[in-house]
Amino acid sequence: MNEKPIEMLDLRGEHHVLREEILAAIGSLLEAGQFVLGEPVKRFEREVADYLGVKHAIGVSSGTDALWLALRAVGTGPGDEVITPTYSFFAVSEAIERCGATPVFVDVDPRTFLLDDEQVLAAIGPRTKAVVPVHLYGLAVPLDRIRTVLKEREIALIEDAAQAIGADWKGEKVGSIGDLAAFSFYPTKNLGCCGDGGLVTTGRDDLAEEIRVLRDHGQTGKYEHGRFGWNCRLDAFQAAVLSIKLPSLDRRNEARRRIAAVYSEKLRDLPLRLPEIPESSTTVWHQYAVRVADRDSLATHLGSRGIASAIHYPRCLHEQPAYLEKQGPFPVAEQAAREVLCLPVHPGLTREDALRVSHAIREWVESANRPVATPERAGGGVRQ
To answer: Residue 284 is part of which domain span?
Structure first.
């Protein structure tokens, strides 16, 4: 008997449960004739600010625009440098470049793939305007030391929280730690809308006002443009969908934790490097990323068993063709780009699905003597 495929994500299943509520919200918007910003956006901004424990939450058109607006709000421009890890999605590079600034890439921690604070401190120079740590794969970056140093030097700390809504570090939710934070609500995220959407959070009134002006063509009043902004507004439909989904976010993140716990238990004795979670951190498992030297072989084997997998990311930022002048080398990030494979970890999976994935991986390992990524095993992923 053929088993059902196990996909990386089940958006149809997620929205099937909410279908009637979403359709009702669309009907209300059609009746009201209000489609851009307006009360639905204001309502979601209040709700998500309360959830994250921040003073200001400003809805914008995408996570990429959220990063750009955050950088612009602190005055990032030509001649400035912005430090960020090279192992990440390209949006952070785009946002820095769009400001006319220069990205300064740093390597990552070999255990977590998160920002290495020693490398950040070494990279700070006279032109450093901001540091953008990435809460990668749903893990919160430990930011105590960096936050203190950056505050002393008047360098902005801007969290890239696109993959980590709901995660926390020592009781502080990501998005409430830095001067500003950028979130993405792309449909594949833990909290996703039905299109593009993003959010900027901050505790500072002046930065919040700057974001609100910049997202709406620089308008300080009706047809009064005090500066050059852009069209980065969140539309009312996406805000309504997010308001519908937000109350169940913690439950869905907990479902991800249950699947991750199965992997961590069943794969711990295999020659794979499992995810590690920093102490005092709660992760939301946007991805469950294992490291294995023969990654393509494992992905092919899983595919033959009807199990999806994904590579996030096959190329570091400093290796992208867009950069004619290359930085580096960054050996830890480059090795991760060669070895990381992400397993299905979405809330629609069952324990039986996770056991089936684990069995398929064990089957692959036992089929031959496989080279491993590192001699030690992380054994992480169990501590939530």
So the answer is: 249-366
